[in-house]
Amino acid sequence: MEQVKVISTLVSPFGMRVLIGLEEKGLKYEYQEEDLLTKKSDLLLQMNPVHKKLPVLIHNGQPICESLIILQYIDETWDSNQFLPTKPYDRALARFWADFIDKKFFDSVIRVLQSEDKALEEAKHDMLESFQVLEGTLKEMSGGGSLPFFNGKDFGFLDIALIPFAAWFHTFESMGNFKLPFESEYPLLDAWVKRCVERESVKKALPSPDRVLEYALQMRKKYLVN
Fold first, then answer.
1. 65 φ, ψ (degrees, to nearest 5)
2. How far is 37 from 220, CA to CA, in rounded Å?
3. Domain check: are 133 and 202 in the same one?
4. pLDDT (average), residues 141-158
5. Could you read off the pLDDT of 17-34 as tens digits, one per residue?
6. How many domains are there within the chain?
7. Does residue 171 share a domain with residue 124?
8. Domain identity same for 143 and 72
9. Which pLDDT does position 224 carry in this prediction?
10. Do residues 132 and 190 make contact, with C-beta atoms less than 8 angstroms apart?
11. Phi and psi of 54, rounded to 5°?
12. What is the CATH number of the domain that holds 60?
């Protein structure tokens, strides 16, 4: 019998990806919550000794690290409900934009949560610019916005990579003191978010916005004030 275990923290958008992926495949798994505000567990340090970061998927005793790599592993290991497109070019495109999220977009996320004054304004500008790019990407990849997901009619790899950040939108607005103009500036993304959060896999994986904000404030106090 296969053993599948996830080490993560419920507020991590990267950990949410793994949970959504497993739920989409209909897999049973064990979940271990890590509290990054205290000491990292021995199991985490043993399973990810290189980066010592979350999430980690443990499949039959073997660890797989880094959320996008884990998603691809899940997709390749269990055949049902494939995440990545079948055509090589489309697969490369999905991987490219997932990489954009993890680098370009996430860089602005960190700066919005950690910056003040002019640096905060620059971070907010960059975040909004990334959302504009993703709006155009969704329009192009979904046939001019006529299809519901980045992969067209099917919820897939790039959708899973991005939707966990929806749980953080309230935190971005609260800590950045601004309003994300989804309805007015990013209508396709706005409609896409509303569709995605109705999926059972996403409902199970995404924590409440208030819980995310509480955690983010605790992290900021611990690492930026002390």
1. -120, 165
2. 10
3. yes
4. 94
5. 999 999 999 999 999 999
6. 2
7. yes
8. no
9. 65
10. no
11. -100, 155
12. 3.40.30.10
